[in-house]
Specification:
148 residues
Length: 148
């Protein structure tokens, strides 16, 4: 892969991650589904103050079936920063993103806090499927969580 193709791939993956944050915060579950590979591995076991083994989910459909009802009544703001993207070949890449998020549960939310502010990293693998980059695996690790 030449430098130009590599840079285009990196920009496509940055755009993919921007859509992830926008669709998540906008509660656009259909748009969010288009970002993931069907065989997604979503590992959010270390995304909460206490490790939660139930937060390792295989498949985009089961992941979204869990996520949408949990976050529908929650205002969220996600920011991704300083991407480190490694292009492996024309159809595979990996990346690490520094992240910060805020969550404010509303009426009807089952989340056990009034607000949450977190910092950490997304560790991801990407795969190009039918010419479109998708998130094939996503893992969130947190450095710090504050909640009230």
């Amino acid at each position: 892969m030449d430098n130009s193709a590599e840079m285009l791939t990196i920009e496509a993956i940055k755009s993919l991650k921007a859509r992830y944050f926008r669709t998540m915060d906008g509660k656009d579950w259909t748009g969010l589904a288009e970002i993931f590979a069907p065989d997604l591995i979503a590992d959010f076991r270390e995304a909460t103050p206490e490790r939660n083994e139930a937060m390792l989910i295989h498949g985009a459909e089961p992941y979204l079936a869990m996520l949408a009802p949990m976050l529908d009544a929650v205002v969220t703001v996600h920011h991704g920063h300083m991407p480190e993207i490694h292009v492996e070949d024309a159809d595979h890449a990996s990346g690490i993103w520094a992240m910060e998020d805020w969550l404010w549960p509303g009426e009807g939310s089952a989340l056990p806090f009034r607000w949450l502010h977190g910092w950490g990293h997304y560790h991801e693998r990407y795969r190009r499927i039918d010419g479109t980059w998708r998130i094939a695996s996503i893992r969130l690790t947190r450095l710090r969580v504050e909640q009230g």
